[in-house]
Design brief:
Blueprint: H1 3-27, E1 69-75, E2 90-95, E3 101-107, E4 114-115, H2 125-129, E5 135-137, H3 144-152, E6 156-158, E7 165-167, E8 177-180, H4 181-186, E9 199-200, H5 208-212, E10 214-215, E11 218-224, E12 227-234, E13 239-244, E14 247-248, E15 258-259, E16 261-267, E17 269-272, E18 275-278, E19 283-290, E20 293-300, E21 309-312, E22 319-320, E23 325-331, E24 340-344
Parallel strand pairs: 1-5, 2-23, 5-6, 9-22, 16-23
Antiparallel strand pairs: 1-3, 2-3, 4-8, 7-8, 10-20, 11-12, 11-24, 12-13, 13-14, 13-15, 16-19, 17-18, 19-20, 20-21
């Protein structure tokens, strides 16, 4: 092929390619090639999960957490049945004079309209209530030195001259003083919610006792020859049920008192202004029962305003099951002969 022929052939090829490109553009109407449609995500980030500070339970979205309300509740036959104990987040049981016991019950996540009967303070109650903050309510009786301890905590102190206190008509005095709990909280706005006191697991099955503990179908607690009670595990509800003085311990609605966690603290007891004082800023032996099992360890409290710390024998912080907690402070034998803890497998 001559040079002239090769040049002609190349020119024809270029012309053909140009025509093909022109045809493609013409077929598409001169517009650019199609692109991926624009995408708009409909994903919405879930609301952050909030937990009740004194139970470890998930709070419904939008829930506002109010202050803690600590109330001194009596525990003798004339006071029964008590009102509101099954709605409490935490209950402490302590020995007082005569070998009987009283409670410091603390409400936060589920505050009833009325709680009681309300009784007077004892020297350890300031140490119990101080870490929770908020309000402490009690009758006006008792030693002035004991009331001063409660005032010194900085908590709002509510006594029987408060308009939220009243006498019921089904108990005899002085065992009939009641507190309108929601009313007294509303009357003290701006109080901070309580700080979380203890570690909680995400479920009953993952609590420290349920995972690592030994079988504990019940626990028998003897505070003195005047006071003993038992907690028995109910697998259907996943809770321990309370009996006292030989029968079910019932609240005003007729429901048996129940709890997700039973914490048993062996405590030293001395005297202050002539009455027994559980030494709270101290340390000692303890058991935690959840899910039908118990784990052994130690408790400690560094100061009045400090929370109680629960650790297993391995030195690791104990995780409670989500739900309410009863703390049983059983005296050591040095103060009350016969004070004992018996865990049944």
């Amino acid at each position: 092929m001559t040079k002239t022929s090769r040049t002609l052939t190349r020119a024809v090829g270029i012309a053909a390619l140009s025509a093909l490109a022109f045809g493609l553009v013409a077929c598409s109407g001169g517009s650019p090639s199609p692109t991926t449609p624009s995408y708009k995500s409909t994903y919405k980030a879930p609301a952050p999960v909030a937990y009740a500070p004194l139970t470890g339970l998930v709070l419904p979205e939008g829930t506002t957490v109010g202050p803690a309300l600590s109330v001194k509740i009596c525990n003798v036959y004339n006071c029964e049945p008590q009102d509101g104990l099954n709605q409490s987040d935490v209950v402490f049981e302590e020995i007082v004079e005569g070998g009987i016991t009283r409670y410091v019950a603390i409400w936060n996540s589920n505050v009833p309209a009325v709680v009681g009967p309300v009784r007077s303070l004892r020297p350890m109650d300031a140490d119990i209530a101080a870490p929770f903050g908020g309000i402490i309510a009690y009758s006006g009786y008792g030693a002035q030195e004991t009331r001063d301890l409660a005032v010194d905590t900085g908590l709002v102190n509510v006594t029987e001259n408060d308009p939220a206190m009243f006498r019921n008509d089904y108990n005899v005095a002085p065992y009939n003083l009641m507190l309108r709990a929601q009313e007294v909280i509303a009357a003290n706005p701006g109080l901070a919610p309580p700080a979380q006191q203890w570690a909680y697991s995400s479920s009953l099955a993952t609590s420290t006792a349920a995972l690592d503990g030994s079988p504990a179908s019940s626990v028998q607690l003897v505070f003195s020859n005047q006071s003993d009670n038992m907690w028995t595990y109910d697998a259907a509800s996943g809770k321990y049920l309370r009996t006292q003085w030989g029968g079910p311990d019932l609240d005003l609605t007729g429901a048996q008192l129940s709890t997700s966690n039973v914490v048993v603290m062996k405590v030293n007891v001395d005297e202050f202004v002539g009455v027994p004082r559980t030494r709270m800023v101290d340390s000692g032996e303890m058991w935690v029962l959840s899910g039908g099992k118990a784990v052994h360890g130690t408790w400690s409290k560094a100061a009045t305003a400090a929370p109680i710390v629960f650790k297993g024998d391995n030195g690791v912080t104990v995780r409670l099951a989500p739900g309410n907690t009863w703390i049983e402070m059983v005296p050591n034998d040095s103060y009350v002969p016969g004070g004992s803890v018996t865990i049944n497998p």
